[in-house]
Amino acid sequence: MSLFRNTKKRKLNKIKAKPLVPSKVMEEHSDTPTSSSLKETEELIKEILGENDDLDIKYFKIFGQYNAALFYFPNLVNIEIINIDILKPLMYVPEHLIGREKPLPQLIDLILNEALYHCQARIESNIEKLIEVLLRGETVICIDGIQEAIHIGTRSIEKRSIAQPETEQVILGPREGFIENIATNIALLRYRLPTADFQVKTMNIGRLTKSTVAYCYLKGIANETVIKEVEKRLSEIDIDAIMDVGYLEQFIEDNPFSPFPQTQSTERPDRTVANLIEGRVAILVDGSPFALMVPVVFNQFYQTTEDYSSRFLMGSFVRMARILALVFSLVFPSLYVSLISFNPELLPTEFAVAVAGGRAGVPFPAVFEVLIIEVAMEVLREATVRLPKQVGGALSIVGVLVIGQAAVEAGLSSPITVVVIAITTIGSFATPAYSAAFALRMLRFPIMIMAGIFGLYGVVIGIIFIFNHMLSLKSFGVPYMAPVSPEDYQGVKDVVFRSPLWWMPKRPNFLHPDNRNRLKKNNNTVLKHSKIGNDQREGLNNGGSERNHNTSNIDNLN
Amino acid sequence: MGDPKEITTLQTSTILISTIIGVGVLPLPLFAVRAGDTGAPLVTLSGIALAAIGLFIITVLGMRHPEKTIITYSQEILGKWMGRFCSLFVIFFFLILTGLASREFGEVVVSAVLRETPLEVTVIVMLLLACLSCRNNINVFSYIHNFYVPMILAPAMIVVVLSLKNANVLYLRPLIGTNFYDMFTGMLTISALFQGTFIITMIIPSMKTPNKALKASFWGISISGGLYLLLVIATVAVFGPEEIKQIFWPTLELARTTTVPGNILQRLDVIFLAVWVTAVFTTLFSSYFFTIHSIKEICHLKDHKMLSYFILPFVFILAMVPKDILQLYEVIQYVGRAGLLITIFYPGSLLLIDFIKGWRKKKSVSQQL
Hints:
By secondary structure, chain A is α+β, with helices and mostly antiparallel strands. Helices cover 49% and strands 11% of the residues of chain A. In chain A, strand 9 and strand 10 form a beta hairpin. The longest helix of chain A is centred in the middle third of the chain and has 30 residues, at 312-341. The longest helix of chain B is centred in the C-terminal third of the chain and has 44 residues, at 325-368. At the A-B interface, helix 18 of A face helix 6, helix 7 and helix 13 of B.
């Protein structure tokens, strides 16, 4: 027995002999409290972080009496704060403390409550936690003879300024976009929602990145089961790194194999707030300028915030144009293929003749022709995204104009094919949500092949298949095609046509919000104005009185 | 069966509408005219009435047993083995119905649109579509039907409205046909087109409020029946009874004669057929779904997903049995009329026995008191 024990011990020794990874050392010391001796603490920290050349240790004497050391990463902290707000009051005894006795046991209290000019100073005695906050940019002060250490939030990271969101442009509406820093992003949300119901919950995900993940919702509006489900799915994630909100998306979505996005990511704080108010949950990650919204339904991928901020007729008109673009981007090439190669008799005769004339020199069947141009278009599109901006413009001109023209002249494709592909491509750009546009962009190819084999029948089969898939999708328990099917009376007012805001007094039911009232009854003064004051017919009838009313107003002004 | 009960009344009606409107739309005027000449609308109306009676019987039965389908409550009413024995007939009948519908669809596609494509390919593509969609649960089933209803109703209505400018009212007179025996069989044939309504027995257990099933089935049959009636009237008024007898699919011919103003599209029939594919899909989907769910219930299976693939070859073989289109239509008419025994007579007798049983129970309870 003893022999075995020995070998075991030796094995253990062998493992120990190998230099451990700093994080493993940290784990080993996770339970050990800091020592009261400054030297021991310093050695421990050095053992864990000693190899880093960017760790700075500054020795000094507190109030000229007690030995202390300051640990910090100079690149992560604001040096000015350390100098003026921390070192100065500690080294140069403040006026109100002159002459007072400063015994060691009360020193910490004295420093925290009377000396330091910093609101984020806290006490910690666990070495693992100290290292963690040190790595996040805080400053740690260890004092000889005192077991606890003080850590102070001095983090200062470079961040870009708030800019206009690049992926979701609007004409009317706010111009702010999220940035990478999560604190700023939460501030952007809080600024728009100064209500006690707005809740922010944070957690850290990622074994290496330890990214801060925040999920926000409006209590009393968002459905409790959805919030719980979000929390559950987030807490189940165990991965080394979360670099962007897209990493989370892939872990929490319902059906990873579907081409359709089941979460919506947005760069716009106003859009996020609008979704929160509808009863959704927003997920933010430190380091990502996108917020993730769940649960989603399909129709919100072609809606923009502009639809609501502009007048309802404008909003509805634009939305219908967008739906048309969406349909085009999915079926236009395949309709073209099936009409040309299976049912030319559907086209008006003159046009059919023109099409045939254009195709006279093209050797391939229509499917191949369209597929070739489509693939070329995809390559071009990807190239324009990756290329530096200065070259991008030139490439798009060369690619689209020159190659397109040359392809037609060389007999590779007919001019009408180029027109069709151009409309399709432009159509897919009109969809506000990039991920949804991408789904339809991908699905275009199988439908095109179906059209090549079965004509219109194939197109319809393909579309039925896609719709059936969409109807069977669910996002956090909400059917994807709601409010169309399953039907929802309130929600359907906002699908194709953006109804006036006063027609939608209730929140759509498909998100199962806990509180459904959007408008308060009988309190909408805007409505009364538009009915009494601005009615043109009434103005004609009571022209005189109205004029009187106006003049009196002017008198008041004067 | 663990799905939440959330099918609404509207969804139930739309399921019925899209189930009823299907392959039958195309030959419907032919069936009606063969039976009643100018009396075709009357034949259609009586067919609808008969189908409505059948639908109400099965709905009332379902409402008396809101937790069960015909497969399970028949075992309660008739006894375990007798009920199972009868259910076997029901399942087999719907298996045949699925096969015939897909075959009829394939024949239309092959002769009207894709002339060089083999019949087998079009049939199997359609069956595959239904088979894959059947893997979903009953709630998704209702979403799918609900979603497609406007797309099914709209083109038929458009064709009817646009064709009315060629209509001749004289073709519709006299209103009553001459041969009453023919009219009777025609009525049976037409009400056989409504056999898909049997699906309601599968839906009632998953409805939010099963009490409203009767209202749902009323709206379902009146909207789809109304559309059928309009189609027959429009077709007869445009072509006249004598010409219709020469055409296999008068409704398709009707779509062919209509044109859209503005000369955007030269012809409408192909577009009509393309949309009609959706209608056929929903019908097939319903009968396929009914078949696999009945099998699931009779065998007490927990999952129907694999079963959906397993049934596919059988349906396909059944679809390929008729030799040609003429034989196919003969078979369809015979099977349809025989099927009325299953879809109307069988539930009718079940309801009668159930009533008697309930009455006896009440009597014995009151005697005990």
